[in-house]
Amino acid sequence: EKVPYFCLPGSVAEKAIAKSCFSCFDYTNGLADVVVGYMGAPLENDGVMTDQLNMITVRNGRGADILSTSLTSGALELSEIPSNQKAQLGVSGAMEQSNDDRNKNGVGTGGGPSRATLVTTTTEADSLVVRLTGGDVREKGMPRWLGEVFATIIGNTAPKGLEFARYSIDYHYLRNWLYVLSDESARGGERTVPSYAKAVMAKYDVAFRDGLYEKLRAAEGKPEVSTPLRNYIAQAKERQRA
């Protein structure tokens, strides 16, 4: 049975995900020769994940050899993306737009919310981020009928294909960055965040940290908010004023 995510307990993701995953910034498997995953691939509504197509990314000659051998042996089969799905998947360039334009306009290609708006909204609503910034996580999910309505609306308006992959990477980098900063037992803190992840996060710097700063001010004195996170956001706010 498929249940809308919004109907599940608020803390379900935090309980189901290993802490090590919250410290990961390699969502693209950057050192792999070839990567296979569902991001950017078409998804049939009535299908199950094990029957769906996957997107293949070949990064170098070794990856090309692996792909060629897999095709020759019959272990792998390539499919063409239907022309009517190319724009939806972002492979035709129809959904390409710089993040600067998306931040400035607030509206993404196709009239839906911009990537910047979706990323910051999702991150601030994430149960882990809510807890880290002193908020109360709502344990009870939406009623089933309301969750179905939300799922339908989001399914029709949210980014798809490669644009969804870009959104997902940005969102997880921001969330995991906050987790690393908040973990008082972690050594190195921000120094453990790779430069490429910081480059992504810099696009959301001012507005995102402003929102976090206000949340942290409202949570003044709550033990859930770690000192490193509070200090970092406050220092960023001071640098912004300067």
General description of the model:
The chain is mainly alpha-helical. The chain is 50% helix and 3% strand. It contains eleven helices and two strands; from the N terminus they run αββαααααααααα. The protein has helices spanning 12-16, 61-73, 83-89, 99-105, 115-125, 127-132, 144-157, 161-182, 195-202, 205-218, 227-241; strands at 34-37, 55-58. A two-stranded antiparallel ribbon has the order 1-2. Residues 92-109 have low confidence and may be disordered.
| Strand arrangement, major sheet | 1-2
Structural class: mainly alpha
Note the gap between the termini.
Answer: 54 Å
Radius of gyration based on Cα positions: 20 Å
Topology as a string of helices (H) and strands (E): HEEHHHHHHHHHH
The outline comes out as globular
Which parts are unreliable, with pLDDT below 50 for 5 consecutive residues or more? 92-109
Q: Short summary of the structure?
A:
By secondary structure, the chain is mainly alpha-helical. It has helices at residues 12-16, 61-73, 83-89, 99-105, 115-125, 127-132, 144-157, 161-182, 195-202, 205-218, 227-241, and strands at residues 34-37, 55-58. 19% of the residues are buried.
